[in-house]
Amino acid sequence: MRKSVPVSELRFGMYIAELDRPWTETPFRFQGFVLSTEQQLEALKKYCKTVVVDSEKSALADVPRAGMQYFGKTIYAEKATVEQELGPARSAYTSSHEMVQETLSKVRIGRNLDAERVRGAVKSLSESVLRNPNAMLLFSQLREKGEYAVSHSLDVSIYMTAFGRFLQLEQQQVELLGYVGLLQDVGKVRLPKTLLEKRGSLTPEEFEQAKLHVNYSVEILRATAGIPIELPRLAVLHHERHDGSGYPNHLQGSHIGMIGSIAAIVDTYDAMTVQRPYADPVAPSAAISTLYKWRGVSFDAGLVEQFIRFIGIFPVGSLVELNSGEVGVVISQNTEERLKPRVMVIRDAKGFELRPQKLLDLSRSPKATADESYRILRTLEQGRVPVRSEQLFMR
In the prediction, which pLDDT does 36 show? Predict the structure, then answer.
C-alpha cells in the first residue's frame, strides 16, 4: 500500500517509492530505497516536501535484497579541472586512436595483438578518466569520427571506464572495463568488409555470419599473451541480453555478470548515437529513452538506471540552446542537479562566435537578464553548430 507522507514525518525503515520531483534532480542513485541513514533524511528534507512510502516494502526493509551490488567503495576525487585535463585527454585519445588503427590493420593480416601497446593505451585512457572523466568524454564526443570500428572501440572503452569510476569500482576493475571496451569487437576484422559496410538490414544468413565476430574476438584474445586473463571470457558477453534473447550463449540475468551487463548497455548506447553504415545516429536523449524502455528486458534494470544517471539529462559534449538564444556545449555534469550542468557558451544570440567564451555553472543560477536566470531550452543536433574541443576555453 502506498501513501503520501510529509518528509517531517518520515521514520527509518520506511521504503521511499516516489518523490515529489524527478529523481534525476536529486542526489539519490536508486529509484526507490529504504530510508536508513541521517544523510538520506537530510537530503530528502533539502529536496522534497512530501514522498510516497510503500508500506509493504517498508515491512520487508530488513530482508536482504537480491540482485547485483552495483556500487563499490572507492571514492574518486577530481584531481584536475576539465580545463586542466583536456590537453592530457587529447594526447591519450590521439595516441590510443593510432594504436587501435595500427593494431586492427595488423590483426587483419594475421598478426597478433601488441599487448604492450594495448596496455599503454588502457593505462593512459583510464588515468585521464580517473583524474576527471568529463575531459575525456568531452574530447571523444567533439572529435571528428573516422573509421567506425576504431572510434567505436575507443568510445566504448572510455564510456565503460568512466561508468566504472561513477560506480566507485576499484581501479583494477575500472581498467579491466577499459580493456573489454577496447577489444571486445576485435574479431570484426575477420568479417568481410562488404558485410561490415553494408547499407540496410542484414539478411538472416548475413546476420549469422556477423555474429561470428564474437567467437573470432575470443580466438584472437586467447592467442595474445600479456593481457588480463579474464578478457576472452568477458569479450563474449556484450551481445547477451537480460531475457536470454542475445548471443552467442543466450545467457540470462545475473549469469551475464556485471561487466558483461555494462558492456551490453554501453555498446548499444554508443552504437545508436554515432553514424553507422546501416543507420543514422539518434540523439543521446532518444538513445537513453530506448535503453530505459528495454530495462529489465534486454538489459539489467538497475544498471540502466545508473547509466542514465551517469550520462545525465544533458550528456557531456551536447550542444544546447539557452533561454538567452545563445548556444553552448555541456562540458561537465553537476551530480546533484542534473538539469543544471556546466556550459561553455560558444555562440551569441545572433549566431556569431563568442570571444571570449563564457563558462556558466547553471547550478549557481547565473543571470541571463536582470529578471531571469540562465537555463537550457533544448538540445541541438550534433554538428548543427560546428565545434571541436580545441575551440573551447579560448580567450
Answer: 64
